[in-house]
Amino acid sequence: MKGIQRIQNNANIIKASYCNDMKTKGSANSFDIHIGQRVQFYRKAKKLTRKELADQLGITYQQLQKYESGTNRIGAGRLYSIACILGINISILFSEIEDKEASIKSPAPLTDMQKRMYTKETTNLLTAYYSLPDKSTRTTIINFINSFNKR
To answer: Where are the beta strands (DSSP E) in 24-129?
Structure first.
């Protein structure tokens, strides 16, 4: 129940911020700036250049720069594609939005564990792990790795 209540509260905050900050049709606002900042933060955390992400999205790096600066709005489909490429849940791009009167918070810095999740080593390990055909083999590998932590 608390989870549903939190989602409703966040939706109300987003609605209040967005509705109170409406400009003319099609122009960006503080909501768009916040989303752009979050995209930039997670792109950098994943160690992708603007050009690399833009190429994967099929857009120019200049267009991505406009999204990240909040100059241009990001459409829902494009936002979903960005989240997929960055390997994040789309909802995280909407986190920490406050109402218009309050300033928008910067994303919390990544912990050491979160930083490790964006390394090539981690990607290679997870790719190899999940390419194993059966769960029992994967369980054996997990148990083997955990045995080193007990020493």
So the answer is: none
Q: What is the mean pLDDT of residues 85-100?
A: 77
Tokens of 42: 């997670």
Residue 107, classed as helix, strand or coil, is coil
pLDDT in tens, 13-64: 554 444 444 444 555 677 888 899 889 988 988 889 999 999 999 999 999 9
For residue 107, tell me if it sits in a domain: no
- Per-residue model confidence (pLDDT) at position 104: 46
Nearest CA-CA partner of 9 in 101, 90, 98, 106 = 98
Residues 86 and 125 in one domain: no
Name the residue range of residue 43's domain: 2-99
The domain total for the chain is 2
**Based on the domain organization, do 56 and 86 belong to the same domain?**
yes
Token readout for 65 is 């720069």
Rounded to two decimals, what is the model's pTM? 0.52
Domain match, 44 and 95 both: yes
Query: Quick check: 83 and 72 in contact, CB under 8 A?
Result: no
Q: Are residues 66 and 95 in the same domain?
A: yes
With contact defined as beta carbons under 8 Å apart, do 137 and 131 qualify?
no
